[in-house]
Structures are given as structure tokens and as C-alpha cells.
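Lab notebook, bench 4. Still working through the backlog of constructs that have no structural model yet. Next entry is a single chain of 308 residues. Request: give me the C-alpha cells for it.
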Amino acid sequence: MEIKNSSVVTEFILLGLTQSQEAQLLVFALISVFYLIILPGNFLIIFTIRSDSGLTAPLYFFLGNLAFLDASYSFIVAPRMLVDFFCEKKVISYKACITQLFFLHFLGAGEMFLLVVMAVDRYIAICRPLYYSTLMNPRVCYALLLALWLGGFAHSIVQVALILNLPFCGPNQLDNFFCDVPQVVKLACTDTFAVELLMVSNSGLLTLLCFLGLLASYAVILYHVKGHSSEGKSKAISTCTTHIIIVFLMFGPAIFIYTRPFQALQADKVVSLFHTVIFPLMNPVIYTLRNQEVKTSMRKLLSQYVIC
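Model written out:
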């Protein structure tokens, strides 16, 4: 992606998460634990689904892609953040800032669309089981996967295009620990009202509509399973509950950040930390802990390659 901008700003200074040394050490330790324990767990989920011929249903196909998206997403912000903890002056170049922003929204939107696809998959499996094998065949699954990647790219490229047209002539201090739309737009040397409105429509409104649509779809599914057998009802409710937890973890912070005017609040950095670092690593783990088939397959895999 070629970046052209006539602004005089060539780098941004990140003010970081906090100025407290104790708080920085605590966050550093927390993120390090997540990377050392939960990130390998995400790759284990992917390897388990890929290696077990019994986990070929679309649900597991999408779960493996969710783990891949979340693992990739966690590499955008956290590694640089960990390095910056030991730097007195946290500097990021203009090009690196735009690149970080692009991949943040590219993968974030892709995951958002993936959750929508997973909701559609569960709706068809529970409410239209006779048509499930026809509607959710491998070709359709790969087409949906391609569509969500293209959707994420389209969403992100719009964000980047709007920012590249803004002039930046100083100041260049970003009051955050990474580059994101609200903070970058506020540094532009021009009136950004129209751009902010477009950004809120592109990110905030889209996120809110997907969130409400997902909640409505799971409400329909839960209503539909009332007449099922006890075993079928219990499994459907467990699956939907897991999905709803992930929906709130994913969409809650995004709605808080992107559906309001770009004005700094005290909670912004904490919400952004959980949104960009903590929750992405936890999402696939939450799915796995509530999925008996994946847990059984994972135990077999570990006993085969580790214990033996």
C-alpha cells in the first residue's frame, strides 16, 4: 500500500498506557502471561481442528479461523506495546502508524463478520437442520470465509483512505499506546467533523447493527429450541450462550470506542487494552472450554504427541 501525504509530520509520539512505573510492570506481566499461555492455546486449537478428521463440521471450520484471526490480531498492538514499556520515548513513524491502523481494522472487521457467519451457521443448524448439509457445504463455507476477508479489507481501506487525505502539521503526540482512528484524526490540521461522521458511520454504526442483529438471531434460536428434547436443548443453549459471551466481549468495547464523537475519556485506554490485547486471546479459549468435542480431541492430541 503506497502512502502519500503532504504533511510535515513524519512520526507520532505515543504517550503510552500510563505514566506509573508500577502499573506498567503489572500490565507487562499480565500481557506476558497471556502470550506465554493463551496464545499457544490458540495455535493448539487450530492444530487440533486441522488434525482431527472428526472435527470437519462448519462450526469447527469457523472456530479454527476465529483462533487464527484472534492470534493474528494479538500481534498488531501487543508486541510493540511490550517493547515500548522499556523505552523512555515511544515513537512510531507515520507509515508504521497507518499500517498498524489498517491491520487493526482489517482483522477486527474480519472477526466481526466471522461472528455473524457463525451465528448464521448456528441458526441453520438448529432451526433448519434438514437443509444444513445443503446450505453449509464446504464450497459455501469457503465463499463465506472469502466474503468476510473482503468485507474486512473494504472496511479498513475506507478508514485509511480518509486519514491519508488529512493534513498533519503538528502536534504529533498520540494519547494512547497504539495508533487508532479517534486519536489520529484529532491531530489533523483541519476541521474533521465530516471525517469523524464518516468514521462513526463506517465503524460505529456497522458495529452496532451487527451487534443488535446477532443478539436478535440468538434470541430467535433460543426461542426455537424450546420444543426440542432436553439433551438437544441443553447443547443448543450451551452453544448459544458461548457465542453470546463472545459477542459481548468483542462488540462491547468496539461500540464504546467507535459509536461516539472522538472525545477522550478516562476509560478509553483500559477499554482499548482489553479490546486489542486481552479479549482476542480469550475468545477461542472460551469457545473451546465449552465445547466437549474439541476438548476431547485436544486431550487425545496432547496424550499422543506430548505424554508419549
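Notes after review: The radius of gyration is 21 Å. The first helix runs from residue 21 to 51. Flag for follow-up if needed.
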